[in-house]
Specification:
13 strands; about 290 residues; alpha+beta; 5 helices
Length: about 290
């Protein structure tokens, strides 16, 4: 593959690994304290003109041939996704959907993963609000496992004790068996397969529940919560995939104020996760917070 990238499968474990040696040279601006020199601010290297949202190919791609993108949420360097409000977050949802559709039409793309790493503690190297997109030539294992069963758990009404917030046809809930403390799952009650299939009302409802849920995470410990967010949706390989139900996973890093939840040897070695926070108690604490300001 170009740029020294190649896909390898470990013969012992079956794990799929993309070797992307060129990414070692990418800059780390995570310690920057202001917008001076930020490549994502208007006038910067990657955003020479004013914009509302913006996308461009990653200069240090994890996948070749234009299948790794940067997605800029806002020109405001100091914003958070939730602080954009429903209107701003709706524009981000539209960006996710637009780039999913564009990459999904490629014959060499079978799965589009939109995601965000928020904060240097989870690997974000630029503090400006942004996400990324990987367009895989295969269906990744984590997404494939969710599509293996013909039944759809996301079509079932959520348990009230794990429900955090609702906006229109969308909800945020703590999963029954979360791997991360205060983990959230966002999904529509309707069986919608992917982000491009959401209509205008569905996109706005998603934006509203996203803003509310992420604001609660920042209020939980009165600090900006580092988190990982990723979208699972219908593969783009031409299959029917009737069981696909679009949803987001949100994995917050902290288990208590400033204390990371590490995934360590006992979990990586066994494949079994140990959550130190009872899911129902996590949901209760998040529900008790006011959420996003009106």
């Amino acid at each position: 593959m170009p740029g020294g990238q190649d896909v390898r499968v470990d013969p012992l474990t079956g794990a799929v690994v993309v070797v992307a040696g060129a990414r070692q040279g990418r800059p780390d601006l995570s310690a920057a304290t202001d917008r001076a020199g930020c490549p994502f601010c208007p006038g910067g290297l990657e955003a020479p003109e004013p914009y509302t949202t913006r996308w461009f190919p990653n200069r240090w791609p994890s996948l070749p041939d234009g299948r790794a993108e940067l997605l800029l949420y806002t020109p405001d360097h100091d914003a958070a996704l939730w602080s954009l409000g429903v209107e701003g977050a709706t524009a981000v949802v539209a960006l996710w959907a637009e780039r999913t559709a564009a990459q999904g039409t490629r014959p060499d793309v079978s799965y589009v993963l939109a995601f965000e790493n928020r904060g240097p503690a989870v690997g974000a190297t630029v503090p400006h609000p942004h996400g990324q997109l990987y367009a895989f030539s295969f269906v990744p294992e984590a997404a494939g496992r969710e599509l293996a069963d013909s039944a759809c758990p996301l079509c079932e009404p959520p348990a009230e004790e794990r429900l955090v917030t609702v906006a229109g046809g969308w909800r945020a809930e703590v999963p029954f068996a979360p791997a991360w403390p205060f983990e959230l799952r966002l999904s529509p009650s309707a069986h919608v397969p992917d982000l491009p299939a959401l209509d205008g009302e569905g996109r706005r409802d998603l934006a509203a529940v996203l803003v509310d849920a992420l604001a609660r995470l920042d209020q939980l410990f009165d600090a900006a919560m580092p988190y990982m967010l990723w979208w699972h949706q219908r593969p783009t390989d031409g299959g029917d995939w009737p069981q696909a139900h679009v949803h987001a996973h949100v994995a917050p890093l902290w288990r208590s104020p400033g204390t990371p939840r590490f995934v360590a040897a006992g979990e990586l070695g066994s494949g079994v996760f140990f959550d130190p926070v009872v899911p129902e108690e996590a949901a209760e604490r998040l529900r008790a917070l006011p959420g996003a300001p009106a």
